[in-house]
Amino acid sequence: MSGDGGGPGQQHDGQQHGGQPYGPGAQGPYGAPGHWPGYGPAYGQPGWNTGGGWGQGPWGIAPVAPKPGVLPLRPLGFGEMFSAVFDTVRRYTSALYLPLAVVAVILAVPMLTVCVLLSGSFADALVAFPSDPADATGAQLWDVFRPALVIGGMYLLAVMVQYVIAGPLATVVLRAATLGRKLTAGQAWREARPRLRTTTAVTGLLFGGVLLAYLLVVVAVLLLDLVDGGLATLAMVLLFGALVVGAVYVTVRLAPQVPVVVLEESGPKTAIRRAWQLNKGNWWRSLGLTALISIVGGFAAGIVSSPLRIVMALAMPVDTTDYAGTVLDGQLTHGTMTLVLLLGMSIGLFTSVATGPLVPLANGVLYIDRRIRNERLDIALAEAAGIQLAESYGYPQPVPFPTQAAPTQAAPAQPAPPAPSVPAPTAPPAPPAQPAEPARPADERPEGS
Fold first, then answer.
1. Which among 294, 302, 298, 300 has a CA at the least distance from the CA of 362?
2. Burial class (CB in 10 A: 0-12, 13-18, 19+), 71
3. Which residue, among 20, 47, 22, has the nearest Cα to 37 in the 3D structure?
């Protein structure tokens, strides 16, 4: 590369970068109309390692990437992706959490009502439950599991609703955070709401496939149990182990599917195929980032909610001498059980709200990194942020960025204008004529002859 006014590996004259056109109105892989900047039909174009995109500056000095928002516009390191997630949370707290908090309050009304209605029967069932679970009858087991299943099912449904809403909401916020633009909670909700249906469909396809595989495993184990109990036990261990490994692999491989749905406005099937292709060769990095983000977020949420957990632990009377933690007979009142259920549900809702946007933000950062590496998304993002890459790298920029492409052919030669006519010099005016002398007579002689 040369220092002739272009950025690393690029000629920044508004016409070419790695053999592809770009600029305002360009129809190449940098920004098809109506899509996330840089996405278009040619999203499979070669990118960062093929002559376009990032490289080194003159004399081997790596240029400094522009950073209009939470991400530098270049291939990202693991630490940069990790910090970008929490930097987005810090800068856009209201846009991320206000819509989720409103949804949590709406969901909390029926959930807490059910907890109050079932707390009495749940407390009576726990008090009547024998110390040794082996001595419990079928009716006693059902009396304990019936309210637990209802309360647990409602909580699981609330968590799924929060997850489906947090995905497009966090992606919309990350889109603004990448370019450093302001975004209110109302704007974030209005932009995310049209993609909720597609996000629900994508999530249903993923988890529905896992649930179907689980049911097939259960049916296979039951059929084998009719033939041979020992073989059924071995098959159950192997099949369930394979199911867990396969579900984890597919879920991590499809991590960018929600960003694809929101930023590229794709349908469910198209988004799954696109996310599978885009995240190829990036499985371990995706797993490490999402796992670390989840652990740190859960730990932070646990610290914030620890006062409620302490109160709930103190309100629940448990026999500390019994390793099974059996509830003492007669000490679990209806009021105590109501308090425990309300605190437990409140802690669960708070945790789902606090940690809900973290994994979707990590998936969005992974999506942006993959597209920068493979599709030169950094150029489109820089243009969307109003940054000319050559100037941000410190290179001279003698030619301003044009709004239209320059003509490729030279203009036809025009005839030279005629030379102005110079008037010929005029002769100087003649001197005035002298008067003629009068004629003399012929016989007159000159005087003095």
1. 294
2. buried
3. 22
Length of the chain (residues): 449
| Distance from chain centroid for Cα 430 | 96
Asked if 262 contacts 192 with a C-beta cutoff of 8 angstroms, the reply is: yes
Please name which of 379, 266, 386, 402 lies closest in space to residue 31, comparing C-alpha atoms.
379
pTM: 0.71
Which ranges of 70-195 does DSSP label H, i.e. alpha helix? 78-91, 93-128, 138-179, 185-192
CB 382 within 8 A of CB 389: yes
Give Cα separations from 46 to 50, 60, 168 (angstroms): 6, 23, 28
Please give the average per-residue pLDDT across 114-138, as a whole number.
Answer: 84
What is the Cα 16 distance to its own chain's centre? 28
Q: Which two tokens stand for residue 125?
A: 């069932």
Q: How far is CA 233 from the centre of its chain?
A: 43
What is the rounded average pLDDT of the residues 413-420? 55
Radius of gyration of the chain (CA): 40
The backbone torsions φ and ψ at residue 131, rounded to the nearest 5 degrees and listed phi first, read -65, -35
CA 86/CA 293 separation, integer angstroms? 9
Other beta carbons within 10 Å of 416? 6
Q: In this predicted model, what pLDDT tens digit does every residue of 245-279 receive, in sequence order?
A: 988 999 999 999 999 999 998 899 999 999 999 99
**Token pair for 17:** 């970068």
Place of tokens 């004629």: 439
C-alpha closest to that of 22 among 375, 260, 334: 375
| pLDDT given at position 35 | 55
